[in-house]
Design a protein that fits this description.
Rossmann fold, 2 domains, four-stranded antiparallel beta sheet, 33% helix, elongated
Length: 385
């Protein structure tokens, strides 16, 4: 009897613990990119809520819109972390776009269950595209979103979703960008042929132009497969241009996911945006992230351009500081109070602590203090022994 009474409480506690554990793994919101997370409702027989991340450029808008569709990791989709694509997001923000990154039904904290459609890839893409429709409908209610100018982007399973979304007559959608799109189903006989048929079906029902990126050392698609996807898509009436960029790192499938891939795709996407009549030039420069803790105030000790003002600095330290000045924020430069040791770190939310740790490691003590943070000198001579 006691155990029967205890069981509901134990289950409730377990659920709360699981929720709390997941909440603890959520990264802090990126204030530099004006990041926020909302639950967007998808209407239907049962209301589904889609965990959607929004990033906004400086200003009040209305801004043209980019929707980025995420890929699918192996395993339980509920445990897939919220997609952010911060390096890519920043590129679009710098060009004045509002960016939405929705987690589709059954992924991460979105409600409902993932609907796979078995081995029917074409159906899978259609179902996933319905979630994009719901997010676009929400964007249409936002005063700072200009949904007459929309670009839809997708990576891997999100690329499949993006091409499927292109079939739908959505006013304002000007173009699609497919990064290594598809769905690999090794347990399905003839999965490659299934994927080709899905792409042909999407192409036959869309007039929206698309830009594709595939690499040769992709762990999901062989060069022969992505070339066939592209050929059959065009033959079925789809408007597409392929950027076959060869090898990338250890796996071309992840090219879109980080900063290393930017030189491959940014210029190509800018040209595509120009063709579509959409904004394609940088309006403002933004840091990739923000400091995890507030930086100390500027002290006026020296100008950020005066590398020779650094106490106990030698030529190598001064050259290092010039490199620091040119580096990307958030950044920090630390110097030792007892030696000529120095170090800097950039493009990291923990740049201040990382610079201090590196400097102390070089000095072989704990004598280092912050000299500069971002574009301000914060050195306090009174704090030095």
């Amino acid at each position: 009897m006691t155990n029967a009474k205890f069981l509901p409480w134990a289950l409730a506690a377990l659920c709360l613990w699981g929720t709390a554990a997941r909440a603890q793994t959520d990264p802090p919101l990126n204030t530099a990119l004006r990041e926020e997370v909302q639950m967007v409702k998808k209407a239907g027989l049962f209301t589904i809520e889609l965990e959607t991340t929004f990033f906004r450029p400086p200003g009040a808008g209305p801004f043209p819109v980019v929707i980025i569709n995420h890929g699918k990791s192996a395993g339980n989709t509920k445990f897939q972390p919220r997609a952010r694509y911060e390096a890519a997001v920043r590129e679009f923000l710098q060009r004045g776009y509002l960016v939405a990154v929705p987690m589709r039904q059954g992924f991460s904290k979105s409600s409902g269950s993932y609907i796979g459609g078995g081995c029917n890839v074409e159906s899978n893409g259609r179902v996933q595209a319905e979630d994009v429709v719901a997010v676009l409908a929400h964007l249409q209610t936002l005063p700072d979103a200009d949904t007459s100018r929309v670009l839809v982007v997708g990576q891997s399973h999100g690329g499949l979703t993006t091409l499927a979304f292109g079939m739908l007559p959505m006013p304002g959608v000007k173009g699609l960008v497919n990064f290594a799109g598809g769905l690999r189903q090794d347990s399905c006989p003839g999965w490659e042929s299934n994927l080709v048929r899905a792409f042909k079906s999407y192409a036959a029902q869309t007039s929206v132009p698309s830009l594709w990126f595939y690499g040769d050392n992709d762990s999901y698609w062989s060069p022969a497969l992505y070339q066939e996807l592209y050929q059959k898509y065009q033959e079925a009436g789809g408007k597409a241009r392929l950027v076959a960029f060869g090898n990338f790192g250890s796996d071309a499938h992840g090219m879109f996911g980080g900063r290393a891939g930017l030189p491959i795709w940014v210029r190509e996407v800018d040209a595509f945006l120009a063709e579509l009549g959409l904004p394609h030039t940088v309006l403002t420069r933004l840091p990739l992230t923000s400091h995890a803790t507030p930086p100390p105030p500027a002290t006026g000790f020296a100008k950020i351009s005066d590398e020779k003002a650094i106490p106990r600095s030698k030529e190598t330290g001064q050259q290092g500081f010039l490199a620091y000045v040119a580096a990307e924020s958030p950044k920090a430069f630390a110097i030792s109070t007892t030696s000529t040791a120095w170090a800097y770190t950039s493009a990291r939310s923990n740049a201040m602590q990382a610079a201090l740790d590196r400097c102390n490691a070089t000095a072989k003590d704990s004598s280092c203090k912050l000299y500069a943070v971002d574009d301000a000198v914060v050195w306090d001579p009174a704090a030095a022994p």
